[in-house]
Amino acid sequence: MIRFRNAGKAFRSRRNKRELVWPLRHFTATIVQGESTAILSPNDSDKTTLIDLVAGTETLTEGEIVRTGHISWPASFRGMINPRMTARQNLRFLTDAYGHDFGAAYEFVHDFTELGRQMDQIVRQCTNEQRHRLAIAMLLAMNFEFILVDETFEAGDMNFRRKVTQFIDDNQDRITFFMATNNARLAERYCQRAGILVDGTVTFFDTMTEAVAEFRRYRKEDF
């Protein structure tokens, strides 16, 4: 469970240091396991702030966030992988840190990424596409109950994306997404509930269809 209670985050305005800018304020909501939730927002910084607050890399200005369960690092965060280590060494570190069996995790990542011998290659020597595959596979191997997504969860070539989609479909009973994105299609694909974040305020809708339609209308008017 991820519970927001009157949560708010403020930053000093770049134009006027005495002025506070609130990318999120008075946010109260509960994200429960089994109900993947998307927060749709056209503002990139607001989306990142929300996910960083849940991940604990940003602190609230007011209110609180209560977290229970096994929550991932943000899916777009590449800092969990040390480019000076091999994929195998990185995975060993993560399984030790999160208390998982290395053998099972290695077998999963090896098969899922199809990297073969490159699992023993220094990560910085891998292509960007290979690094994307590795990052997603390592995240999935940790068996998180909640997966945090800042903007997108799609990486790699089309075959790898299909593999990820199939894995999520097969494991819907144990994976819950909390994502902040401007990609309405992604939200529709993976989530059952959505709200729209504009000017620091989140408004939830009764159905995904309503939320996505309103967001697309808002973006069309905005541009």
Short description:
This protein has helices at 44-55, 87-98, 102-113, 128-141, 158-170, 184-190, 208-222, and strands spanning 2-12, 20-31, 37-40, 62-67, 146-150, 176-181, 193-198, 201-204.
* Strand order in the sheet with the most strands: 5-6-3-7-8
Counting DSSP E segments of at least 2 residues, the number of strands comes to: 8
Total of DSSP H or I helical runs spanning 4+ residues: 7
At the fold tier of CATH, the topology name is: Rossmann fold
The CATH architecture is: 3-Layer(aba) Sandwich
Rg (C-alpha, Å): 18 Å
Give the C-level CATH assignment.
Answer: Alpha Beta
How does the major sheet shape up? 5 strands, mixed
The CATH superfamily label reads P-loop containing nucleotide triphosphate hydrolases
Mean pLDDT over the full residue set: 91
* Tally of domains: 1
First-residue to last-residue Cα separation: 36 Å
